[in-house]
Specification:
Largest sheet: 9 strands, antiparallel
Structural class: alpha+beta
Helix content: 10-25%
CATH superfamily: Cyclophilin-like
Shape: globular
CATH topology: Cyclophilin
CATH architecture: Beta Barrel
CATH class: Mainly Beta
Strand order of the largest sheet: 3-13-1-2-10-6-7-5-4
Distance between the termini: 49 Å
Number of helices: 4
Radius of gyration: 18 Å
Length: about 240
């Protein structure tokens, strides 16, 4: 793969506003199943203008991501924010803007740990899972999150086979042989999106949100709910 380089994927994030490109296939390399709901896993209740839903997060799978998310919850960062990007049959995204489309200040980004989570048996980007939104930089996630409303396999991190060089690697129908490991590990579109939780109650509310009428709003040309869907509060419930 001497001349082959891997470009950055488009992402579900506010400023970029690009459609997602490419596919993170390599499903044959990802054999892990989703986590069993943990009885003592932290839960957060989101009260929105469309109703309430509860998410469960997995610090044993994505510790840095979960710690980051829970700190935003404790800081009341999400209170008064909106779901500013809603695409039916794809995902709903929020956590970054208030109802006047003013972007909220955030802390430094959290390091990407999608591969580590998946390797520990974490969930993939399937219906109801909670994942971090980011820019083309895999390590740019801060406060924004999205909820998958369908199975989005192409958003999954790609696990890299052992070895250096990697003797054989398949991607988008092509086979690469004897590829330097660092080249694969650092290829932006192979990082995918870090799943760190799942909706455990109120998925009907999330499904209601995904079907609201959308259009242009604030700085965004499309996919913005015409009637703002407001997160009234996000509260740690255990």
């Amino acid at each position: 793969m001497a001349a082959e380089t891997f470009g950055a994927p488009c992402v579900p994030l506010d400023k970029v506003r690009r459609t997602l490109l490419g596919a993170l296939a390599a499903a044959s390399l990802i054999m892990m199943t989703g986590p069993v709901l943990a009885q003592n896993a932290p839960k957060v209740k989101f009260l929105t203008s469309e109703g309430a839903f509860v998410v469960e997060v997995y610090p044993d799978k994505a510790p840095r991501t979960v710690e980051n998310f829970l700190q935003y919850v404790k800081d009341k960062h999400y209170d008064g924010t909106i779901f500013h990007r809603v695409i039916n049959n794809f995902m709903v995204q929020g956590g970054g803007y208030d109802s006047a489309y003013a972007e909220k200040k955030t802390r430094a980004p959290v390091a990407h740990e999608g591969r580590e989570a998946l390797a520990k048996g974490g969930a993939k980007n399937v219906v109801g899972t909670l994942a971090m939104a980011r820019t083309n930089d895999p390590n740019s996630a801060s406060a924004q999150f999205f909820i998958n409303v369908k199975d989005n396999d192409f958003l999954n991190p790609t696990l890299i086979p052992p070895g250096d060089p990697v003797r054989k690697f398949e991607y988008q129908g092509r086979v690469y042989e004897n590829t330097p490991r660092a080249q694969l590990m650092n290829a932006a579109q192979l990082f995918g999106y870090t799943v760190f939780g799942k909706v455990v109650s109120g998925m009907d509310v999330v499904n209601k949100i995904q079907t609201v009428p959308t259009g242009a709003g604030g700085p965004f040309p499309s996919d913005v709910p015409k009637t703002p869907v407001v997160i009234k509060s996000a509260t740690l419930v255990n």
